[in-house]
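[step 3/7] fold_predict: job queued, chain A
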Amino acid sequence: MFAILKLEQKIPSKKDIEEEINFYKKKFPTLERILNLFGSIFELQLEYVNKIDVSGFDFSEDEIAKILKGGTPLLSTKRGEISSELFRELLTKLVEIVKEKSLQKPIALDKILEADELKTKNIGVLIEKFEEGDNSFFENLCKEKNINKDVLLFMITNTLSPFYEAYSLGLRSKINHHHWGKEFCPICGNRPYIMKLRKKDGLKLQSCSVCKTEWWTQRIRCAFCGNVNNKLLSIFYPEDDKGHQVELCDKCKRYGKLSNEKELGRDVILRVEDVATIHLDAVAKKKGYSPITQSPIEMN
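[step 4/7] structure written:
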């Protein structure tokens, strides 16, 4: 028999995001520009989560248990509708934020909006290719339009994220996490990008890079390959910041960032934690490790 482990996941408000961004701007003044950029992106995404109609979309707890026991993410069996008009509207606003606040000022942004593949009538095909992981489609598109692939995938991921998050909200509290325990999201199937140790009980939770769902995993376990051999697992953290750690796996040579809420003395918002700890990504990569997945904040 499986034990029952259900999790309540707080949805951050605009005020929550603002407070976290301001906290880290004071702690890490050199990150002010990038924190402002992603603070605006996160607030825009949360605004659209509330605009997406999820009525009539649901799974019963019995359906969820059956699907997850079979090793399949929920949205691979039934996905909510993604409005092409709303996607295009959000994408356009996201482009404006990045153009205004990004340090890099990517020149590909206007080309992205001009590409036929990202016009409203073709967005359904684009989303399908993205969900299938059709790398050749995006390679060809970027080559033809002279668009940086990382910039394009950054924009698509951050535009799709509110849709996935909206459809995940009503499902999260119904999941028995002991039915899952995999290295990809039980709801949308994407990889985690950051983790935390929960303050109140020390549970280790991974956060999905797209729908932001948090799910339980073993304390000693690689978030990419599932390795549980502690001889091949290690951590590092700054001397003055034990609450922000990086887990390294020498079996797959991947790393994952982890926020220890007990050490930090507070609950965290993982999407903000990802931005505030970008210096740890640089250290891990310099040591020869690759991230579990490309973070939603990464854009070359």
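[step 5/7] annotate
The mean pLDDT is 94.
The chain is about 45% helix and 10% strand.
exit 0
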